[in-house]
């Protein structure tokens, strides 16, 4: 199910208000986007403020290589979310295509754990076999999708700061 930017923001704010936080992941450039979002939450964006709860599943190379070696690369995120996620958290998966096996697996695992999950992708995403909630940045070319992901990350942080930090 495709959602709007406003619905994305509302889902994130509701997660925080319920005591949850953002868990993010992605591969390659999207892993960098995942890390960038979380470092801006925990560190700071524009102003000094309290840290905001966030975790990137893409950032711990020891965990990723352990799971990849022992179980397979397609499980590097789903194994982590099974261990680290709480019911009020929200999973944000950055993916230009939305078709990576490890992204599909973590979205499916989140569903079985009743963790809200949103795929953040581009207009080239369409998969009628999966019933994932997704937000499209409105671009089809990989580099443009990633550029819009970065803009969206900053919009997410600004929205969180505006709605949660007093």
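Sequence proposed for the structure above (166 residues):
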């Amino acid at each position: 199910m495709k959602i709007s930017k406003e619905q994305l923001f509302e889902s994130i704010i509701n997660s925080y208000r319920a005591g949850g936080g953002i868990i993010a992941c992605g591969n390659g450039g999207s892993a960098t986007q995942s890390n960038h979002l979380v470092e801006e939450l925990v560190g700071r964006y524009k102003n000094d403020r309290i840290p905001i709860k966030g975790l990137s599943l893409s950032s711990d190379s020891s965990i990723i290589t352990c799971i990849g070696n022992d179980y397979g690369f397609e499980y590097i995120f789903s194994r982590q979310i099974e261990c680290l996620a709480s019911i009020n958290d929200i999973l944000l998966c950055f993916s230009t295509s939305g078709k990576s096996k490890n992204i599909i697996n973590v979205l499916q695992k989140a569903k079985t754990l009743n963790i809200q999950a949103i795929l953040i992708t581009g207009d080239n995403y369409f998969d009628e076999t999966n019933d994932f909630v997704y937000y499209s940045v409105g671009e089809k070319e990989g580099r443009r999708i990633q550029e819009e992901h970065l803009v969206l990350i900053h919009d997410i942080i600004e929205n969180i700061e505006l709605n949660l930090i007093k």
